[in-house]
User: Fold this.
Amino acid sequence: MSLLRYRSEIIKFKEMNFTLKIWRQENARAKGRFETYQLQDISPDCSFLEMLDILNQQLIDKFEKPVCFDHDCREGICGACGLYINGRPHGPDKGITTCQLHMRKFKDGDTIVVEPWRAKPFPVIKDLVVDRSAFDKIIQAGGFISVNTGGVPDANTIPVPRKNADIAMDAAACIGCGACVAACKNASAMLFVAAKVSQFAMLPQGQVEAKERVLKMVQKMDELGFGNCTNTGACEAECPKEISLSHIARMNREYFSATFNA
Amino acid sequence: MIRLNAKIPEGPLADKWTRYKATQKLVNPANKRKLDIIIVGTGLAGASAAASLGELGFNVSAFCYQDSPRRAHSIAAQGGINAAKNYRNDGDSVYRLFYDTIKGGDYRSREANVYRLAEVSNAIIDQCVAQGVPFAREYGGLLDNRSFGGAQVSRTFYARGQTGQQLLLGAYGALSRQIAKGTVKMFTRSEMLDLVIVDGKARGIITRNLVTGEITRHAAHAVVLATGGYGNAFFLSTNAMGSNGSAIWQAYKKGAFFANPAFVQIHPTCIPVHGDYQSKLTLMSESLRNDGRIWVPKKKEDAEAIRAGKLSSVDIPEEDRDYYLERRYPAFGNLVPRDVASRAAKERCDAGYGVGTGLAVYLDFTDAINRLGKNVIEERYGNLFQMYEKITDENPYKTPMMIYPAIHYTMGGIWVDYELMTTIPGLFAIGEANFSDHGANRLGASALMQGLADGYFVLPYTIQNYLAGEIMTPRISTSLQEFQDAENAISERISRLMSIKGKRTVDQIHREFGMKLWDLVGMGRNKDGLQQALTSFKDMKDEFWGNIRIPGDAAGMNPELEKAGRVADFIELGELMALDALNREESCGGHFREEHQTPEGEAMRHDGKFMYVSAWEYQGKDKEPILHKENIDYEFIKVQVRNYKI
Ligand SMILES: Cc1cc2nc3c(=O)[nH]c(=O)nc-3n(C[C@H](O)[C@H](O)[C@H](O)COP(=O)(O)OP(=O)(O)OC[C@H]3O[C@@H](n4cnc5c(N)ncnc54)[C@H](O)[C@@H]3O)c2cc1C
Ligand code: FES
Assistant:
């Protein structure tokens, strides 16, 4: 432990320099390009987005336009942030979002390439900001249990085996950031859709509409131009919430049983 | 002077809400379709209200600044949501939840509102379970609970450390269903910049499309603000980066009274500030205080050695640790309410016992890990521990966490009556945006409860009592002069901001202002400091409007412009906070006036003089607002000195 502390203290005091190659694109119609920026004296305890804040302050000082990127909670839960960093969604660290990435994961002098999500159903709006409203549309197609407010039974009249509740929660942890789509060579949204389908498949409340739900959500996903799933597993590997491929398997079972019984 | 009428129904406390519902006016289904409602904000409060009102058949338009309603700040709530289910058989009841909330709020909230909140709390849990919210369960399949501060029962329902996320996704699902049905029209990446009033009634809003920069008018029969709290005024807070006070501030400037602006909650367990590049502070959920023990070294020299890096927490033997909350408050120990825990941490650090940078205390899980095993702790708090490690690069299973208080929540907000209507007819405020239920201090796990109570179970009733009087009013036209004027004013404000082309960035000014606000209107406040704040904020306003630099242009996406508008409002709001804090010559809940404390350093209320809600009325630029007082009468409970010692 003392060694660990010693190491982290040394790292803490050493500031770092980076070369950034960032995708700049004025708007959806404009052609984009990479711009190169040099950034000095960055603390390793600085988060990736704070590093971009520092860059932006410097750009504004020079009367240049700051880099646009989506972000809000900055603690890994809202799913707003999402940058493609050195060829990986959310960058080199595992199980985290871009806002949780810290500069200590890079080496002094590194060149860091920053791009937006690249997927047809997620068109670029500006710089690193993309339009992910396709995800909302998939949920609108059936990613809910149809109950109106009021008139529902007492919560404890619906017991759920703890194991099932835990699996449902694992699936429900999805933050809708879109890293799965960005990671997939086919731009498939299977992990995103499966997470919702699987959550409800594990709960008694979800059974009533199970068939309809999976059919409608998959149909909407296809309609919106997301690609097919070829089981490469890139989505699972890059998912900041480490949502497992087993949910895709569960969704496939749901889908086949729905089509078979239809 | 206008007398504030809270419209509390007559009758015994437990019957008020039932009676209200039985006698209020309703709108029939055919008329509902003809009535338009604007809901600004789709966090827990706004999304649940939009879904419920859409289900009822009203024609709803909903707005949020994020790219999706699923990303509202509510998503970040970690620890849980309270309800009076008494599933644990530990003596809970609606009355006890009501009582704890009033006491926790340091006797500065309305009995009738709080009782209603406790009353509908159980229905929220039922609703969420029906929606498929995966709450934590026990092996028998029934719902599990945990404890939160300020209560001696376990009444908090939770979904791992992601309760807000799961509740919001539930409400988002319900909202999505209505969007698909066409009863709710959703406007994302849209920011409300002004409220439009026609003939004294709220009739619409002006928004800016954050992608195109387009300014748009929207009209309705009623407007609901569900835009969350204004904690981000302090720059560093646990709120999401975009959380803002602008919508409620514009409403205030149009005549809605602002209540208790000085009542701000400082959360005791946040990751301490560690660098000047920092953009926000991260909360470590209060639920951690179920199993974590808070301490600092007993000896000053140990604390100094730790700060110098010569000793570490594990080098301090048990007998040299000061578990100061357990020492000072034996009855509640580590689970005292937030204001008490925050002040106690500040007291230790100010006295020189802080660790880390000096502004930090330990939150230690060693005992719990030894007692329950690492697995149980991981199951309960795994995601929080991971979050902590990612930020600090330290492993809390091995070394204690370091924490310090940070700005978290605002109890103050737009004044509303029992029906959640503001002083502007037709303008409602729900969720954190209003001031209604938490008095001078909110208990943990009660904001989620209040947001969903307002949105699912209160507003859908009370708004009808108003709208029943509007069934003869045809759709409001956006070509009315009032809309034109409001749009012009907004366009002018934007051009003015863009044309300053000064030297300082928005963040620089916001950071400087936020620090001042924290120092002078933060955890400890006094007369001199508050007066100093008032002068200094005036200067900051001049600095802002004379020296801000916003690059790019107003058409198209421009985050600097968005931030500038919000910061301009925050500075004005900060002035009102200071004014309110200056006026309230007592300490209560989160509001601690250093002049008013007991010899042991506990907050000292002055019930004789300050048992009221301060409701401020705007008088125009650079004019002092007028203070209205809503007296709080406790009919049903006995007002006491808050005591968490015995
Ligand atoms: C880190 C953290 C943890 C928390 N944990 C808990 C907990 O465990 N239990 C608990 O009870 N409470 C908790 N809270 C408090 C609780 O989360 C909030 O008080 C609550 O979620 C607020 O909900 P809301 O619906 O009122 O507002 P928000 O969720 O803040 O939503 C505001 C909405 O308004 C929109 N909006 C804002 N301004 C504008 C504008 N000008 N124009 C258009 N739209 C706008 C936003 O887009 C958003 O949709 C926590 C808070 C934080 C910060
Ligand atoms: S900003 Fe919310 S997940 Fe990164």
Notes: The mean pLDDT of chain B is 96. The pocket of FE2/S2 (inorganic) cluster (ligand 2) is lined by residues A 71-74, 76-81, 97-99 (CB under 6 Å). DSSP finds 18 helices and 19 strands in chain B.
